[in-house]
Amino acid sequence: MVKTEYAKAVIAATHTEDRSVLLEASNVTMQFGGLTAVDDVSLSIRNGEIVGLIGPNGAGKTTFFNCLTGLYKPTAGQVRFRGELLPPQPRNVVKAGIARTFQNIRLFHNMTALENVMVGMYCRTKTNAIDAIFRLPRHRREERECTEKARRWLSFVGLEGAENHLSRNLPYGDQRRLEIARALATEPGLLLLDEPTAGMNPNETREAEDLIFKIRDLGLAVLVIEHDMRFIFSLCDRVACLVRGAVLVEGPPSHVQADERVIEAYIGAPQDDEDGE
Amino acid sequence: MTIVSPELQSRYGKPARIVAIVGAAIMVFAPMVPWVYTGKILDDMRRAFDPSGLQILFELVALVLLGVLVTSMFGVKLGKYKNVVAWNSTALAASLGGLGYIAAIVLAVAVVGSQKGLGGLAAAEPGLWIALAGSVIASAGSVFLRKSPRATLAKVPSPAWVQILALVAVVAMVLFMAAFAVNLTEVESFLVCCVFIVAAVFVFRATGVMGWLSIATANNRKVLMLAAFAAAFIFPATQDGSDANMTVVAQVLIFAGTALGLNIVVGLAGLLDMGYIAFLGAGAFTAAVLSRSAYATFSIDLPFPVVVLISGTVAALFGLLIGSPTLRVSGDYLAIVTLAFGEIFRITMVNLDGTDGPNITHGSNGIPAIPNLDFFGFDFGKSHEIFGITITRQANYYLLLLVVIAIVIAVFANLNHSRIGRGWVAIREDEMAAEAMGVNTFTLKLLAFAGGAFLAGMVGAVKAYKDTSVTPDQFVFLESCFLLSAVVLGGMGTVMGVLIGATILKLLPEKLRFFDDYRMLIFGALLVVMMRFRPEGIVADERRQMEFHDEDEELADEVEEELVTHHDLLNPEGGK
């Protein structure tokens, strides 16, 4: 277990059963010229909750993600995190406590696994150029702590032996896990996972599921985009289905699973069969 | 390297080794016989059983070759480690190196002999032909030797004192070779010596000694640094009070220091800066303007360390000024914009002449007659005798530059191994992902610009005093190109590589004056060849090497294996 102040805080949050709203997206609309990619989406996520975001390809899931991480500024609507408006610029969003992984893995391929995780800690450390140049105590202390923490995050996601491996050389599943470790190193309150099991075999998918539960047990809220229905319905507390930029259904997995419109959106009604998986 | 097919190698392997040994034996004998009948070509190769300097170098190659070939028949094991040394590959490298060496000498004799009216190759004595024949036979034989498996020498554990001794020996060897090469006055001798150095490096690589040394270096970084600086401080003693040689070497240091600053920008943060010389200029002009020169416009009598700091700061401010608008673009666009800014700097310095603008730099005349430094009565302008060694004016500045370079290297290395260095590399690898992980990319890029500029500005201050005059035409675009070439050629992101790259790019044109007209052509060709065969530069940064060989899985494993071995050797109890 990661015994940092951060971890203690999130664990405390879980134990008090604090289920207050963490993220609140209200009426988020994102337009690119004439194209409305996200249309009036409202979604709230509570502390310690796992929320799934499903929908056919091109439904606007990733665009919505990008609105939550500061990569896009919504055309209309607003996103509040811990009651405050989301700051501009992705790096400030990370600092506020939202971390993400990418659909197509975007690790720093030629850095070692440990270095990758340590980059994630950038926004939580303070060493400046002067400290580093003169090797001042603050630099040494932070560097030591960082390495230690990064190792713990690696072992948290199950990558103990891999710290000195270049991330590009890791097996695919491990790269996904490293990306999660890197995101966790930013000490987020909410973790956004963009298709964490894409390209994984059933075994790896099960491991990913366990890992996400483990992350939830740290007290984090998790928002997952996924196409694997079995995965999403066994994992999530709540699922929202996005179709053509708008929320079609939202509710507990059983509710969404039973909804005919969801099945129609996926399997394809006659007019939009290209959207089907 | 496979020249002959594996089938032929396995069929003729045994007789080929005998042939190669015979060739090597002939090579060993050759330097004992005169090579040239006159002392006017190369160094004195006239005497029997009294080899000249260059002949001794050849003898070294021959002895190594013979030793390797004979040892390879038995195959040496060290404990549980097999294939400690890649004997066959080493033999191939040594024999080809010997062939290249002797070819360079034959060429020199032919060209110089005909120029000096000595009848070209008619000046050659039998010894030269014996050496050539020996090299050809040895090369022909060793081409048929089967390729050896990769040497495991690097994995063999060795006590610390052996590693330290080896590193000190290497540094001493480098010092000796550098002194020998710089002292060679003849162009041809210098070229032949360069061929030898290249051959020696290849032989070291083939044996696996290089791999072992790199691990020894990682284990004893401080020892190596100390030894290297000690050697650099001793260097003036080997030059016998020659001010001319020290001028060249001091220029190399100025160039290297600036290139190291550029290495932060290009090598670490991955920003292509084509106008970097402007920062050296900013530092030099600041120091000149503040100096006690009669032409200085602000002439304030400040202690030199303060001047260096001010010069660095002015350059850094200039870096911020250029950086804040230009760093919003990236890649090719950044290169073009920085190129333009570099030219703007130079033209501005020309225009600050009192007619087109305020008189600060005296326009294209610049600021001449900058007086020499004086540290507590130690006049940099005079020669000093220390322990019977003459330290000339240029040697004084050389020693001062060494101190500055030490600071530059320390800053570079400390920043590289810190949170900031990791941020830079992350930006270089994937800027968007870095931003999405909370890295403040814009500030970090600006810091790279300003930091690099500061270092260049510091070097510029010393340059102003060493050259005694600063003019705008010292800071033309071409110089920026050379700086960039030094970084790329040497190895982006490495200290050692950039030092080597800077030495090659500055020392060669100085020593080989005759090809001054063609140096653009030759360096251009050299860069093209490097980009094709070794894009990561002479010394590869472990991370960088991967970027250029993205598809090369074998190399990826190799580099990783090395990283992991390094780590295991550094932390014997095993990483947690």
**C-alpha termini separation of chain B:** 39 Å
Rg from alpha-carbon coordinates of chain B: 26 Å
The number of helical elements of chain A comes to 11
Instruction: State the order of secondary-structure elements of chain A, H for helix, E for strand.
Output: HEEEHEEHEHHHHEHEHEEHH
Largest β-sheet summary of chain A: 6 strands, mixed
Report strand order across the widest sheet of chain B: 1-2
Spatially, the strands of the biggest sheet of chain A line up as 6-7-8-3-9-10
The CATH topology of the largest domain in chain B turns out to be ABC transporter involved in vitamin B12 uptake, BtuC
* Structural shape of chain A: globular
Radius of gyration of chain A: 19 Å
Name the chain pair with the biggest interface and residue counts per chain.
A-B, 48 and 39 residues
Secondary-structure content class of chain A: alpha/beta
Summarize the structure in words.
- The complex is a heterodimer of chains A (277) and B (576).
- Chain A is an alpha/beta fold.
- Chain A is built from eleven helices and ten strands.
- A six-stranded mixed β-sheet of chain A has the order 6-7-8-3-9-10, sandwiched between helices.
- In chain A, α4 packs across α6, α4 packs parallel to α7 and α6 (137-156) packs across α7.
- With 576 residues, chain B is an all-alpha fold.
- Chain B has three domains: 6-232, no CATH class; 239-526, ABC transporter involved in vitamin B12 uptake, BtuC; 541-576.
- In chain B, 67% of the residues lie in helices and 2% in strands.
- In chain B, α1 (6-29) packs antiparallel against α4.
- The longest helix of chain B is centred in the N-terminal third of the chain and has 29 residues, at 87-115.
- Residues 572-576 of chain B have low confidence and may be disordered.
- The A-B interface holds A 69, 71, 89-91, 94-95, 99-100, 102, 106-112, 115, 118-125, 127-129, 131-135, 139, 142-143, 146, 151, 163-166, 168-169, 182-183, 186 and B 410-411, 414-415, 418-423, 425-426, 429-430, 432-441, 447, 451, 543-544, 546-547, 556-557, 559-560, 563-564, 567, 575-576.
